[in-house]
Amino acid sequence: MGNLARVGLRDFTRSAKILIITNTIYAFVLPVIDIFVASYIMRNSSDPSKVILYQLAIYVGIPITFFINGYLLNTINIKRLFSLGMLLSGISMVFMMSLKEINYFGLITAGLIMGMSFGLYWANRDYLVLSTTKDRTRNFYYGLETFIYTIIASTVPVLIGWYLMNGNGDSDSNEAVNSGYRVITAIVFIITIIASIVFHFGKYEKPKSEKFLYFKFHKLWKKMLQLSVLKGLAQGFIVTAPAMLMMKFFNSEGALGSAISIGAVIAAVIMLILGKYSKPKHRLIIFSVGLICFFLASFFNGLLFNSTGVILFMFLLLIARPILDIAYFPIQLKVIDVLSKIENRNEFSYILNHEFGLFVGRFIGASTFLVIAFFINADIALRYALLIIGILQLLSIVIAKQLLKQQETLEKETLITKNVITEENA
Q: What's this model's pTM, rounded to 2 decimal places?
């Protein structure tokens, strides 16, 4: 398989390993944020539109916080900002659970706080991965990280679902279940504190204090932005769609937890193998497989729209999401590597701009659901909005192919130019 096939933990710096450990601890929080906050809203409001409104508030908060983070990095240590991002996710959940009723003001406030959490976490996480890894190790980095997350994501929902239904007294009592949610929220907050402490054992350099806000970019980056908009389309409500579908057809957090675990272990093993043995040249194939799985998930959900369709949707989605991530993130970081040197710009400027591309897609995706739910009904939105986005996502295959070809050409041209300059100076 060549040298690239034998990438392992030994190829990571100590700081990269600390980052992996931190993200592993924080991974115990993510399934709660992704799944059970949405199910909590559904249980206490029975309104899918409120779930999407909460999600939309999150997506508004993320790019705003990305932008503010660019300025904060000039004065505040990146460790503190990254840690604050993790802690805010716990604070958002505490605020949500303190609401006496699920009203719009409370939803938007909790969503904005969670958006700030994600903004600080992902803005700094993307930079930390970029600065502590090389292109040849990124397939394995994301493969390992996704493997760990998928294993955790396959067990945490089951345990939480069991606890909410059986471990907290009368599972038929809404107040008893809500009391269980509050206990879980307290545990989440403790985990974010532990993750923050562990992260501070690493050493990380902050980005250069340079201009990071640009509006004109290389044509290669415009292709990357097209990919980010399409990725954002799915993120618009794909995080909360599983919970809404499960609560609709099963009305049980226990069933929700069990369904999330179907196929998760298989997906985890696939991720580890792909991460260890795949090469940069395989990213387009991996990306395409992920997109096709996502399309099939939305297709079966739209075709059947029953409990069987939901199980098929969950199984395929569990495979699609990590496969897409293991290809997408290395593609993104490689483009940033290439263009930051050519355009002589701060890497964070690309991370920030990429987030605005995601926001546009997320806004369109969430708005598509809300418009269909408002003017027709929520069931039609749950059934067909996903299918519309699944079809549009397939365009990413063509765009990714064009992007990788342009990137390869640009790298060759840059290399030729450097060689010419070297020969002239010799």
A: 0.72
